[in-house]
Every structure is written in structure tokens, then in C-alpha cells.
What we know:
- It is built from 4 helices and 6 strands.
- By secondary structure, it is α/β, with parallel strands linked by helices.
- Helix 2 links the parallel strand 2 (23-26) and strand 3 (56-59).
- The chain has one domain.
- The chain has helices at 11-18, 29-41, 67-82, 103-111; strands at 2-4, 23-26, 56-59, 93-97, 116-120, 123-127.
- It has a 6-stranded mixed beta sheet, with helices on both faces.
- Helix content is 35%, strand content 20%.
Amino acid sequence: MGIIVELDIGAAKLASVAARMPVWIAETVKNANTVEHFRRSAAPRESPSHTALGAVTTFIIDPNATPEAWVEEILAVVEEHHGFYSQTPPYDCLEVMGAQPTSELREALAELGFAKILLNSRGFRAEKPQG
């Protein structure tokens, strides 16, 4: 599962990420254009489900808030759509691009069962314990 809060992800990066996981992406002007292009050019998916590989879902952001706040605000929606009661198996890994794991964001992730945070060059990866 990916959450992208970069202001301009770019077509190649979006296609690369969506090929590996369902994506939730902040609806900025540039990202909206990229998503529209991606949807027009992508091969039709077998399943129109937002939980399938290649699925890209946009979410509205508060332009006055931080990317970390955008992630925190969308977490409950992502959990609702991809968690234990919504899909089998539920998601257990979250790749966040464009934000850092602030103490507030770490707390929100912990409330959803994410116990491990791994930093990377684009943001971080959060993991729930296996089993």
C-alpha cells in the first residue's frame, strides 16, 4: 500500500509505484494531471477495485497543512479500505513518499498496529508485525 504526498510525483514514478501496490495520492494540481494521464494510458485492469495492483486513488488535501498531516488525515480511510475488515489478507505494509514520520504520525501509525518504521530517501516504510 502506498501513500504519496509529494506535490509532483511524475508519470514514470507513479507508474512504477502503482505496478507494485495500490496507491493513494494527494490531489495536487500536478498530481491530478499525472493521475489523469496514468488512467488514460494504463492497460485496463481486470478488477476496478481500489485494492488491486494498478489502482490509484486521489484524496483531497489542505494546502495549508504539512504532508505529514495529509498522511495522518488519510490513514483512517486507508485502513477502512485496506484493513482487516475490508480485504484478505489485510495490508501490513505502508510506503509513504513525500513525508517524514513525525512523532504525531508515528503515534497515529502505532494506533493502527504499525510497529516498525524504516526511513528511505523518499519518505518511509511502516510495517505491522507478521502473524
